[in-house]
Each structure stands twice: as structure tokens, then as C-alpha cells.
Amino acid sequence: MRLFFILCLVFSNFFSNGQQSVEQLRETAIMFQKQEDFTNTLMILGKALEMEPQNLTILKDVALTYYLAGDFKRAAIRIFPLTDRVDADVQVFQIAGNIFKASDESRTCDKLYKKGLKKFPKSGALYSEYGDLKWSLEKPEDAIEQWEAGINADPSHSGNYYHAAKFYFAAADKVRSIIYGEIFTNLESYSVRTSEIKILLIESYKRAFVSSESKQYYIKKTTEFEVKFLETLMKQSALATRGITPESLLIIRSRFMLDWFTANSNAFPHQLFDHLQYLMRDGMFEAYNQWLFGPAADVNAYQNWLKTHDAENKKFQQYQRNKLFRMPEGQDYF
Prior knowledge:
Helices cover about 70% and strands about 0% of the residues. By secondary structure, it is mainly α.
């Protein structure tokens, strides 16, 4: 009798353990999705939907999987109804936007981004992707309007700074490409996009000291902040004649910071400048400056600097990885 009870208990545990939860099924599905085994992904997600047919997360996963598999028609059929759900989140509209952009259905995509932003007016991600849609449609002024709106609405979302910095660099704007670019590198410090913006940044500083350089398109009214920034930077024009390098920029930017905090910091409080001032006070500004400009200027020279400044670099790297940089609202002065 006792043996019979033990066997019943063993078989009971076996069958109960064989019944996976929705969360467990999703974990397995995502594993297959990362391996680009979309057939298995969809099969397992289908099992999860049998248990919870209205589970928003699983339904998003299904639509995304079809999108990743290149089946945009089925992806659209799956995602579109989700945009009308009361519990639709930002990710629903992001996935929908990607699907309809890939399907070349720009009108539907435009409507969905507007719908998403109406529901989530503080979503920097939606502004960033909506601007990208406008750019792809060759509407640059509409694109920058969305990216700047995203910076105002969600100032710590990196994507809008990335696009805005590239836009204003292309427009030969002397200040916005510098400010937006450096903010971006602090919000998103270690990515392929960061390396791209670092190149843009050092070129923007070179351009800033060329008096004949002017905006090529999208002429926008110059703000007081922009005027003060250039006035303060131009005090170091003599140093720029030695060439714009990480070494000359260290001196130029150090003196700029001293002048800025003497004359302009009260009128234009700015988290980026506060961050730079802290790095200067704590002896990390040179390491930061090298990290920002060194790889773009001369990789070999930067590697040599690292070899001879190991302690300084380690101190900065530890600080950067542990300190989360964020931009507050109300400090976009453009």
C-alpha cells in the first residue's frame, strides 16, 4: 500500500512538472527566437496563447516573430488589433511602426505613431522612431521636429539626441551638434552609435572655429544659449590654431568651463556642464576627454595614452559604469 502511494506521488509530480507556465513557455520561445528558429518560436507561443489567449506580451511576441521572420503581412495582422486595446503599451506601437515601415505602408505607420504619441506623449522612443519615419520619407524638417519634441518630452532617452546630433551636423550647425552629441555619448556610452557620434563631435569642434562655415539648410533662429556658448568658446580661438586634437580640446574645454560657470551657469543651468565640472574637480576630466575624442582622432595615440595613464583611466571607467547620467526636464535651450 505504501509503495502504491509513493508511485502515485511520483507520477503526480511528473505530470504537474510537465505542465509549463505561460512565463516558462515564453522563456523557451524567446530562446528559439534569438536563434532565429521562428517555427519553434511560433509553435511554443501558440501553446502559451492556448492557456492565455489575451496575453498582451505573448501576442506582441507573435507579431514580432513574424516581423523578424520577414512575414510582414502576418505580422501586421497580428499587431494591428493590439493598438486598439486599452492596455496597449509603448512597445505595441513600436513594433507596429517597425512592421508597417518594413511593409512600405507609411500612411498607416504615420497614423499609428500619432495614435501612440497621443496615448504616450512622454515617450521618447516613439518620437525617435516617428522622426526616423519622417526622415525616410525625405521630410527632414518634420523629422527634426519629432526628435526635438522627444528631447523635450523625455530628456533622458538617447535616441532623439543621436538623430538630432547627426541632423545638425549635416546642417552645419555649430552648437547643436556639439551639445546633442555629447549628451548622447553620456546617455549611451558603449555602443556602435557612440563611436559614430564621437567622430561627429571632434569634427563639430573643428567646424566651430571656422568662421566661414555656416548652416547649409534648415535655418533656425539662434537662441541666447547658442550665442553665449559660441561667445565663450571663441575666447579660445588662439588655442585652436594649434589644431583640434584631444590635447588641445582638453585645454579649450577646461577654460570654456571656467568661463561658462563664471558668466552663464545661473542663466542656463545644464546637467551636462555640471557633469563636466564634477569630472574636472575629481581629476577625471582628462580621462573623459580622451575617451570622448581619442579614438576618433587617433586610435594609436589613444592606446598609448591608456598605457601611460592606467590609474586615471580605471578611475574614470569605474565612475562612468557606476554613475547613471540623466538629463532633467527644462534644460533644452534651443
